[in-house]
Recover the amino acids of this structure.
RNA sequence: GCCGAAGUGGUGGAAUUGGUAGACACGCUGGACUCAAAAUCCAGUGCUAGCAAUAGUGUGCGGGUUCGAGUCCCGCCUUCGGUACCA
């Protein structure tokens, strides 16, 4: 039989699915192992070759673990709510549910093509009402709970109300955003509306004012992603910050646990560091600065209370509540002009463009809490509303940004830390001796911080506090395609939870997906839906993408359950994810939110573990190569002009061109060294983009030619510009795995993706080496068959053959355990090359080799397994066992180095003594040559490793 | 800007704990088979000099530690990911 992957793969795909080979149920007799992939957003471009990189790796591990005797949960599903489907609906009128279902069907067939061992009966889809019922349910639990800081866990709001009724706001230590305090009596006299307002500020899901990117011209809120340089990416309209009341999740309540419980996870240090930095814990002081002529005071947080004597001015975030109140009439127009400028700036720009300092003076003065000096209050974009308290005491002598600000606006600088004893110490290093600081003078920074904290607390100027950079998560989106909030508002605007038996609250059907007036979500257009219940109106915002993805791994455990998000039984068996594979782009967002939701559910006693993901591997991205052609910005004689990359200089250089991404299918030598459009490519291009049919092209010869002239010219080449970037529909560079599988087979595709390099590494897609893997599979097959002839015999293997097999068994197991799958593919190649060299066709070698390769190439091995006349599926077999006896050798081959550089080899018996070895080394001709008669300074022998002679 | 990662032949990459740099492939060169092509097989292949033996040189750049550095330390450069409404 010849090796024809398409026949084999279609045959086994059907058998596996008919016989439900990969279905899994809880089985207490076996250890469980949960392997999870980050589920994909089903985009319109379909699955591209980058997605399966992680999926193949996790599939190999799943299959390996199964062979090792584990009960493996390995599911797949879809993160199906999202912006692109909604955009598509606006453009085409196709309902997001329809396009999403189509995209999912396409993803499914693409996934099936690659031979994954998913248990498809467990598929989840976050946009299905049966799924988002439970997303809404969890949201309502967040809505009806607060975080008790004494017990360090979430508790029911009813408990909180009980405490308020008996001891007022002082009776509880809770995470909250309520300003003020009250007694039990005061609480009881408050109206329902007032009580609700207070409770809202304690809920874990609460409402507050947040800022969104508002685009007046498009009448919609934009994602940061859709804003470029203060303009909307679509259309280039101005975008400004707009305040809106929105839902928010109090993730900050969990900051400390999210930080400390990170320690026990098997995640890379890089990833843990990213999460720690994102949480950004800092210890310092909350201090109040009084305002001259106002009752209000400015609340700041500082990690450097020791430098307070160096504080010569204050800076508020332009959005700070006090700004309007304290701005003097003389300064008002300046302040307003500045705020207008800031509103046009994205948060990203505000943080990154630090070299250009901007700000404005409010006209107001604060009173320094210790020196009682009057210091000016400014506003500046480098202070962000959501960081800390949205206000800082500026200490230009010890903070770089404050320093730049002071220099720009000519504000005083008082040095307070003498660093002469600490050469090389920067402003941010907490070291030095205090000067110009009253009672702190002469102290070391560390002691001064301690002393000042005591002073602040004893003088009631503020208090010691731990601050986190982590901010509460904005949980509202003014969109259609997301989970509706199970919330209604009464006539007084009080939010009420929907009863559990009213869940799921499903999305209303809409024809028009454009936002409603005033930036409200498209849901506001469904008036019947909004006002369905008497006297109540529904929330029209929807939940963000991370809602459904924050708990989907739990749903896989029991996906059809309609009584709970998953049964206790299923949760107790599967517990947590043993191995999670996904991209670094989720390093902080998704992974932080999931951990937060999981901990919340743990507090409620709904899940048995504190952390959801024990071990995590970040797969690199497979990038695409984007091919651009150069279009002259100004038309030539009314015609569009494209110029070959090597001819740009003659036409005004690169600046006078815009780069237009071109479909990679048209490009000859795509991704290679000289990619270009030939006459055929130009023809494809103008068919694809008919608006350029009259365009003029300057090829590498430098002549201007029309499309029809190019058609008759043989040597025409328009060089393109290649750039490594995202593989995405917008760059027309998506490579479909179906095409690769059709040509080479799924086994080859799987092994090639692994062979490309380490799983964590990003790299551009390239099929250059795929022939090597295809050759390997053919060679592997040829150990079993030559043409139609079956070659496998029952002869007893030689020691050498056993050694080859067991070396491979050892290497593959080690490689899988450390997720080095590229090197295991190499190991298989080495093994097959050697068996081929020995002309080995022995059953006792080949049968284990089939089981060994099965996780990597499930189809070819299943076929050969049945050809070997073995029972059942190879994927239900057991992993070959290593016998180390075959690996021992009685000689050691040492490399002999002179001064660290290898000059010779020396093979000696394993049991040789140190002195015998030394004399053998010195006797070597090559060593004698380097010694030139002298004695060696030193001989270093690393047992079984190497020998170094120092001369 | 800030946080994280990566950089090794013409190309993808290997080197697991500081110990033979370039495994395994692709590509290229030469050869066998063939009318020819495909497929397959054999040999060579970091760079420089040399017929060769061999020598020098070589892991982004500049320093350092060490008998020995791709690996550790210090300072840079470039690329990628994230930066809170892309997913």
């Amino acid at each position: 039989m010849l090796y024809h992957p398409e026949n084999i793969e279609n045959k086994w795909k059907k058998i596996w699915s008919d016989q439900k080979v990969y279905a899994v149920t809880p089985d207490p007799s076996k250890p469980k192992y949960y392997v999870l992939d980050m589920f994909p957003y089903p985009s319109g471009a379909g699955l591209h070759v980058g997605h399966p990189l992680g999926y193949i790796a996790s599939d190999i591990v799943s299959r390996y673990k199964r062979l090792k005797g584990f009960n493996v949960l390995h599911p797949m599903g879809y993160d199906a709510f999202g912006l692109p489907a909604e955009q598509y609906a606006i453009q085409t009128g196709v309902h997001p549910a329809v396009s999403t279902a189509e995209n999912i069907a396409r993803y499914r067939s693409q996934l099936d093509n690659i031979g994954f061992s998913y248990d498809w009966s467990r598929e989840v889809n976050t946009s299905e009402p049966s799924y988002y019922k439970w997303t809404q349910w969890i949201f309502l639990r967040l809505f009806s709970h607060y975080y008790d800081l004494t017990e360090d866990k979430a508790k029911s709001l009813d408990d909180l109300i009980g405490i308020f009724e008996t001891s007022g706001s002082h009776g509880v230590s809770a995470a909250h955003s309520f300003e003020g305090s009250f007694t039990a009596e005061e609480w009881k006299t408050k109206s329902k509306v007032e009580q609700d307002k207070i409770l809202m500020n304690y809920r874990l899901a609460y409402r507050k004012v947040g800022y969104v990117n508002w685009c007046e011209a498009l009448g919609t809120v934009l994602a940061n992603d859709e804003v470029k340089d203060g303009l909307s990416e679509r259309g280039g309209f101005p975008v400004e910050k707009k305040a809106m009341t929105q839902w928010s999740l109090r993730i900050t309540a969990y900051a400390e646990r999210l930080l400390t419980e990170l320690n026990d996870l098997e995640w890379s240090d890089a990833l843990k560091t990213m999460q720690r930095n994102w949480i950004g814990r800092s210890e310092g002081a909350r201090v109040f600065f009084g305002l001259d002529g106002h009752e209000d005071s400015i609340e700041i947080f500082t990690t450097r209370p020791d430098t307070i004597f160096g504080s010569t001015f204050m800076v508020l975030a332009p959005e700070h509540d006090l700004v309007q109140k304290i701005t003097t009439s003389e300064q008002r127009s300046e302040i307003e002009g500045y705020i207008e400028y800031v509103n046009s700036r994205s948060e990203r720009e505000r943080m990154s463009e630090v070299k250009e300092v901007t700000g404005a003076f409010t006209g107001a003065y604060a009173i320094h809490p210790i020196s009682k000096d009057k210091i000016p209050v400014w506003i500046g974009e480098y202070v962000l509303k959501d960081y800390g308290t949205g206000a800082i005491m500026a200490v230009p002598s010890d903070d770089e940004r404050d320093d730049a600000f002071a220099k720009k606006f000519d504000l005083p600088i008082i040095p307070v830390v003498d660093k002469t004893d600490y050469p090389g110490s920067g402003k941010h290093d907490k070291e030095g001796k205090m000067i110009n600081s009253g009672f702190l003078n002469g102290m070391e920074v560390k002691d001064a911080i301690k002393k000042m904290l005591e002073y602040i607390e004893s003088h009631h100027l503020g208090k010691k506090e731990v601050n986190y950079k982590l901010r509460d998560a904005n949980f509202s989106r003014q969109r259609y395609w997301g989970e509706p909030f199970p919330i209604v508002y009464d006539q007084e605007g009080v939010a009420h939870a929907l009863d559990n038996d009213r869940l799921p609250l499903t999305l209303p059907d809409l024809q028009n997906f454009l936002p409603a007036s005033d930036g409200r979500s498209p849901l506001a257009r469904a008036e019947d839906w909004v006002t369905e219940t008497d006297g109540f109106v529904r929330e029209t915002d929807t939940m963000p993408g991370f809602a459904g993805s924050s708990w989907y791994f739990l749903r896989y455990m029991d996906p059809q359950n309609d009584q709970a998000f998953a049964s206790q039984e299923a949760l107790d068996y599967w517990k947590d994810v043993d191995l999670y594979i996904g991209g670094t782009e989720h390093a902080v967002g998704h992974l932080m939110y999931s951990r937060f939701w999981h901990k919340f559910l743990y507090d409620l006693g709904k899940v048995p573990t504190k952390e959801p993901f024990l071990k995590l591997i970040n797969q690199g991205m497979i990038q695409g190569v984007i091919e651009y052609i150069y279009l002259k910005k100004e038309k030539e004689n009314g015609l569009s002009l494209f110029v070959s990359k090597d001819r740009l200089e003659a036409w005004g250089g690169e600046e006078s061109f815009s780069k237009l991404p071109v479909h990679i299918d048209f490009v000859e030598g795509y991704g290679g060294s000289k990619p270009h459009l030939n006459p055929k490519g130009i023809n494809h291009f103008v068919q694809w983009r008919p608006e350029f049919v009259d365009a003029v092209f300057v090829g590498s010869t430098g002549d201007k030619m029309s499309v029809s002239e190019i058609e008759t010219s043989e040597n025409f080449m328009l060089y393109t510009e290649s750039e490594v970037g995202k593989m995405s529909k917008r760059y027309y560079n998506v490579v479909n795995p179906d095409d690769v599988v059709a040509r080479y087979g799924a086994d080859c595709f799987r092994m090639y993706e692994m062979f490309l390099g380490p799983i964590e590494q990003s790299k551009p897609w390239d099929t250059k080496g795929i022939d090597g893997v295809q050759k390997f599979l053919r060679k592997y097959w040829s150990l079993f068959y030559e043409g139609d002839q079956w070659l496998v015999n029952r002869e007893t293997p030689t020691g050498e053959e056993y050694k080859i097999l067991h070396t491979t068994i050892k290497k593959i197991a080690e490689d899988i355990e450390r997720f080095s799958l590229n090197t295991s593919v190499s190991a298989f190649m080495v093994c097959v090359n050697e068996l081929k060299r020995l002309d080995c066709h022995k059953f006792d070698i080949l049968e284990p080799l089939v089981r060994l390769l099965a996780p990597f190439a499930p189809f070819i091995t299943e076929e050969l397994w049945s050809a070997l006349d073995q029972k059942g599926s190879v994927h239900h077999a057991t992993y070959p066992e290593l016998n180390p006896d075959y690996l021992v050798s009685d000689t050691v081959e040492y490399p002999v180095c002179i001064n660290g550089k290898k000059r010779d080899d020396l093979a000696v018996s394993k049991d040789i003594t140190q002195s015998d070895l030394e004399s053998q080394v010195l006797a070597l001709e090559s060593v004698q040559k380097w010694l030139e008669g002298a004695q060696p300074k030193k001989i270093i022998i690393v047992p079984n490793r190497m020998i170094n002679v120092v001369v």
Residues 648 and 654 of chain A are 6 Å apart (CA to CA). DSSP finds 31 helices and 40 strands in chain A. The two ends of chain A are 62 Å apart (CA to CA). The first strand of chain A starts at residue 32 and ends at 37.
